[in-house]
């Protein structure tokens, strides 16, 4: 009786025209330089791509072929494969096409192994015996570990695009206190911004916050997040120059205090003057950061635009029918060429009889901080600067050109815009003016 010998059939290699049918969608995406932007955008396309699932394959190993049979075309597939996992190249075999050896199965062979030393292995071969111009792939896609676990992520090399992004931002200075409390703080400053602050540290530091830019989807209670911008006057361009940004919780002065202290350490010298709106959070932060140790202390001035705006709004609420009278009297105190202490006390005594609530407001907000807003005390080299137009102009640019009105973005999206769109734009604008390609703005 003749024995029957089963001859194993070679595996079939169906042609996969769309490689994303077998390759996991990338966490990252390379972006071209947008029109009008002087530098390349972030190599990391934010975190919205995280969460892609690995395609379900019928067998392991899974045999298939991809279009093209050149080494370059195979490396294109390898690049796509390595966008989520940095596979280790285990073997790279090249054969001379002119040897005439008929039995040789491939022109080249690439072998990659799991970076965590698991069982998974991927092999690429370009076969001579296949008539169509394809490369054959043998994919052992089963792993003996959970490659999406935190332990594996900590020991696995990050994708190349993420690695470049981390290296690009490595020299940025940061001040981080990320906790679910009022102490939340995330401040950052580029190398160029730090240099500008050191070069122009004799200028007035301007600080202001915008409150409807960042959506708080990462902290308990959904407390409002503020984006603080710290600016200087750029003597080269003639406009305001952001030298640092910080995310904090609104109405909390402690993170602002640490931010100002950090910036003073960054600049390497004591700041001469600070200008802000009349928010008490900033006032308390400046007072704690720059205590009046001597006559050469840091001055804190309030922007008169915000002073008058805040006073008028409160007067309309608490003094119906007499708000304008109180406003005009307060305005005379602001611009008084004489020491306004007695005038302010008389103002307070008069109007507290009309409205005790308004009198309490004047006492808490204005009497104890007279030196911040009275022109009589504007005695530094910046005494001609009474308003803070640079931060107001900056907020208009941010919300009109980068963040649509009424559209609060995630913190990672705002971070991406600041680091990879706005900072390069300001840096490029200064180069254009410094080299004579664009005229300077004269205020």
From TrEMBL:
Residues 175-291 form the ZSWIM1/3 RNaseH-like domain. InterPro entries: ZSWIM1-3_RNaseH-like. Pfam families: ZSWIM1-3_RNaseH-like. PANTHER family: MEMBRANE-ASSOCIATED GIANT PROTEIN ANTIGEN, PUTATIVE-RELATED, MULE DOMAIN-CONTAINING PROTEIN. This is ZSWIM1/3 RNaseH-like domain-containing protein. It comes from Puccinia striiformis. The lineage of its organism: Eukaryota, Fungi, Dikarya, Basidiomycota, Pucciniomycotina.
């Amino acid at each position: 009786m003749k024995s029957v010998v089963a001859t194993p059939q070679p595996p079939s290699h169906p042609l996969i025209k769309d490689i994303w049918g077998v390759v996991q969608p990338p966490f990252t995406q390379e972006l071209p330089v947008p029109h009008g932007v002087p530098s390349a955008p972030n190599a990391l396309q934010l975190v919205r791509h995280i969460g892609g699932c690995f395609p379900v394959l019928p067998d392991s190993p899974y045999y298939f072929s991809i279009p093209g049979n050149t080494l370059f075309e195979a490396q294109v597939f390898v690049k796509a494969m390595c966008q989520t996992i940095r596979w280790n190249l285990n073997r790279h075999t090249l054969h001379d096409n002119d040897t005439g050896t008929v039995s040789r199965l491939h022109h080249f062979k690439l072998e990659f192994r799991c970076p965590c030393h698991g069982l998974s292995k991927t092999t690429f071969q370009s076969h001579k015996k296949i008539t169509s111009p394809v490369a054959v792939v043998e994919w052992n896609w089963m792993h003996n570990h959970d490659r999406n676990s935190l332990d594996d992520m900590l020991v696995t090399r990050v994708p190349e695009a993420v690695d470049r992004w981390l290296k690009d931002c490595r020299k940025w200075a940061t001040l981080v206190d990320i906790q679910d409390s009022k102490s939340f703080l995330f401040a950052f400053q580029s190398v160029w911004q730090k240099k500008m602050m050191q070069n122009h540290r004799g200028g007035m530091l301007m600080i202001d916050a915008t409150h409807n830019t960042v959506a708080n989807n990462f902290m308990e209670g959904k407390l409002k997040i503020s984006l603080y911008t710290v600016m200087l006057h750029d003597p080269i361009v003639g406009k305001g120059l952001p030298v640092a940004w910080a995310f904090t919780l609104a109405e909390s002065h402690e993170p602002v205090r640490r931010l100002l202290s950090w910036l003073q350490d960054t600049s390497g010298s004591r700041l001469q003057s600070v200008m802000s709106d009349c928010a008490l959070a900033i006032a308390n932060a400046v007072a704690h950061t720059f205590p009046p140790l001597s006559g050469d202390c840091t001055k804190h001035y309030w922007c008169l635009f915000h002073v008058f705006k805040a006073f008028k709004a409160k007067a309309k609420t608490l003094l119906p029918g007499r708000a304008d009278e109180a406003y005009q009297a307060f305005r005379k105190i602001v611009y008084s060429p004489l020491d306004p202490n007695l005038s302010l006390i008389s103002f307070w005594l008069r109007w507290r009889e009309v409205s005790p609530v308004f009198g309490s407001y004047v006492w808490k907000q204005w009497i104890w901080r007279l030196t911040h807003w009275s022109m009589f005390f504007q005695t530094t080299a910046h005494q001609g600067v009474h308003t803070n137009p640079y931060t107001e102009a900056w907020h208009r640019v941010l919300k009109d050109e980068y963040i649509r009105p009424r559209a609060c973005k995630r913190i990672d999206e705002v971070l991406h815009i600041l680091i990879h769109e706005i900072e390069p734009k300001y840096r490029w604008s200064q180069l254009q003016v410094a080299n004579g390609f664009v005229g300077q703005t004269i205020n």
